[in-house]
Amino acid sequence: MAIRFVTAGESHGPGLTAILEGIPAGLELRREEIDRDLARRQLGHGRGGRMKIERDQVRVSAGLRHGRTLGSPLALHVDNLDYRNWEERMNPWPVETAVEEVHLPRPGHADLPGLLKYGHSDVRNVLERASARETAARVAVGAVCRALLRELGVEVRSHVVQIGSVRAAVPEELAVEDFEGVDESPVRCLDEEAGAAMVAEIDRARKANESLGGVFEVRAWGLVPGLGSHVSWDSRLDGRLAQAIMSIQAMKGVAIGDAFDVAGRVGSQAHDEIFWSQERGYWRATNRAGGLEGGMTNGEPLIVRGAMKPLPTLTRPLRSVDVVTKEPAQALRERTDSCTVPAAGVVGEAMVAVVLADAYLEKFGGDHLDDLRGALEAYKKRIGWRR
Ligand SMILES: Cc1cc2nc3c(=O)[nH]c(=O)nc-3n(C[C@H](O)[C@H](O)[C@H](O)COP(=O)(O)O)c2cc1C
């Protein structure tokens, strides 16, 4: 991998940190752009009280000087403002007061397997890290990768296509410009009518003490053909994207292009015929493959979807067992969102941006942004790529 990153931090601890390695020198970063993505991750109808407390902003403590990357690892931090309410319970150091342990694992969460695996008695020692608060750090990393991709002519966007039983109508072709107002929609949905129905579905679910899942879609434009490779299982870009999306908390499925729909069609209706013209070079009239063939980009827009399960923390908890007494009990009632598909889409964008930036750096290399640009231009010339 050309890019590596690791995050650290607990949901109610002092904050989240990401170390990102592999970004070339000379890339301009704008704090407000990273903060904008962090704010987008906090939005969406169906969020709980926590997001009213947090005002996520990035702090950079390494790898950047006067707004330009140095080529050294970037250290990105997002503080947890809520830590002030948890200082005793989540202090990294011993505290005087006795802190009550949590003994009621939630079905569908990391609580029970994590407790068994790590030998804890307190479920909080697992849930704090399993929480998707961690995705704030990923979004900061994704914003850096997005800045790199923009320099290479690549744009990444997302929208929500399903919440609960409500599905949006999705046009076959979407341009970057079509996504302009998407963050103004309370559910980040491009189909206004479906968006309103999604809001109503979330309200109904919340009233019934239920949570909801759904599906988001990430698209990327401006990709050159040949990112990723067919030659080995772990160099296939479809596999790398699937892993990146599946690594997001609560994702239970990934689809590339028409995916599950295509599985039920005949071959002639499943693929994208190849055309060539003087002005455009190679082009396709359809994009059923979602921009990937043989584990490589084919020059068409990338289309990836993530299917999210309903959130496991419920305001009317499911049955569980007290891990100390082994008596039947109701699962922990922790403060929770009721639907976070809109936010998950923003995290999906970040993860796709990481994979694509990695694929560009792997193919074109470069310690300075200009080296990367130069190698990209030389490749485009060799293959006669005009877009
Ligand atoms: C953006 C985002 C926010 C989330 N918020 C919550 C939440 O408030 N409550 C909850 O129970 N799960 C939430 N989750 C999902 C859990 O973190 C996830 O279900 C849990 O870590 C178990 O992992 P698994 O579902 O992948 O098996 C959220 C996920 C994402 C992507």
CATH architecture: 4-Layer Sandwich
What is the H/E order?
Answer: EEHHEEEEHHHEEHEHEHEEEEEEEHH
Identify the quaternary structure here: single chain
| % residues in beta strands | 15-25%
Bound small-molecule species = flavin mononucleotide
**Count of distinct structural domains:** 1
The low-confidence runs, each spanning 5 or more residues with pLDDT under 50, are none
List the helices and strands and how they pair.
Elements: E1 4-8, E2 15-21, H1 31-42, H2 50-53, E3 58-62, E4 64-65, E5 68-69, E6 74-79, H3 111-118, H4 124-130, H5 135-151, E7 155-163, E8 166-167, H6 192-207, E9 214-221, H7 237-246, E10 251-256, H8 259-262, E11 274-277, E12 281-284, E13 292-293, E14 296-297, E15 302-308, E16 319-321, E17 328-330, H9 341-364, H10 369-383
Antiparallel strand pairs: 1-2, 2-6, 3-6, 4-5, 7-8, 7-9, 9-15, 10-15, 11-12, 13-14, 16-17
Helix pairs in contact: 1-5, 1-9, 3-4, 5-9, 7-9
The structure holds flavin mononucleotide (FMN).
Catalytic activity: 5-O-(1-carboxyvinyl)-3-phosphoshikimate = chorismate + phosphate
Subunit structure: Homotetramer.
Organism: Thermoleophilum album
Commentary on this structure:
Homotetramer. It holds the Pfam family Chorismate_synt. One of its GO terms (biological process) is amino acid biosynthetic process. This reaction introduces a second double bond into the aromatic ring system. This is Chorismate synthase. With 387 residues, this protein is of the alpha+beta class. The protein has one domain: Chorismate synthase, AroC fold. Helix content is 30%, strand content 20%. The protein is built from ten helices and 17 strands. Strands 8-7-9-15-10 form a five-stranded antiparallel beta sheet. The radius of gyration is 22 Å and the shape is globular. The two termini are 27 Å apart. The structure holds flavin mononucleotide (FMN). The site of flavin mononucleotide has 20 residues, from helix 9.
